[in-house]
Amino acid sequence: MNDPLQLLTKKITKLPTIPATAHQIMNLADDESASLGKLESIIQQDPAIAARIVSFSNSALFGHTSSCTTVVCAIQRIGVNNVRNIALGISLMTLFDDGGQEHASGYQKLYHHSLVVGMLSKHIAEGSGLKRTEEYFLSGMLHDLGFLLLNRYFPGMYRKATDESAGGECLLETEKAIIGSTHAEVGAWLADKWNLPEAIWEAILHHHTPSCAKMHAKLSAVVHLADYFALRKVPASGEKSRGYPLDPASLEVLSLPLEGVGKMEEEIDRNFFSRGIFLS
Ligand SMILES: [Fe+2]
Ligand SMILES: [Fe+2]
After folding, report:
1. Taking ligand 2, which is a single-atom ion, which protein residues have CB atoms under 5 Å away?
2. Rounded to an integer, what distance in angstroms lies between the CA atom of residue 116 and that of residue 20?
């Protein structure tokens, strides 16, 4: 851990622990049929998560005209593994939602951005012929975990860094200068504290710099691309300056041609943004 990060994290006297719901979801067996009933009962225990899962299942993404009103219907529509990862992501993210006026709007924007990057990560992974795309969804959803933590515990520094980067400064450099660490480093630190899988930890750490990813290069590359496309369309609160340059290494890792980026963006625009799927 770098020194500034150590200093910063020492100031967090009470780090939120993983909620019981998230623990139960992580401990579910990988077997879809065995997990369905258990997943439903875990989600039912948490009305906030249940409501979000049901509303997600009714989004235009799934193209159904009839609306789901129950968790079972949502699971049948979205699939066990998808619901499991969405519920896990929501459960971890809501730890940083204090519902207070000061941080609420920052949290809502970050939550929406995270969901968009989660969905796009899964979509890009599927389009690239990758397997286990649920893992891509979760990594995309948690990629800006560091922003959530900074917004919650160090709102002053967080706002200063994001305001300066909105003025055109490089976000990561601004964070280094003001906070001492980047939101990617802070997020990876938390993922490590929570014992999240190594692949997710690495994707969080390298979502802005996928060429530095050593172990799960494809995962970091996909999350980077998803974040890049999402920010060009809707800037998140921590990444106001309409994104950052694309790391060409992410395309190489996925065997995608540089000329294909424009087409990919058009396809995402057509299938997601233009259909209103990402409206908050
Ligand atoms: Fe980021
Ligand atoms: Fe992001």
Report:
1. 144, 227
2. 25
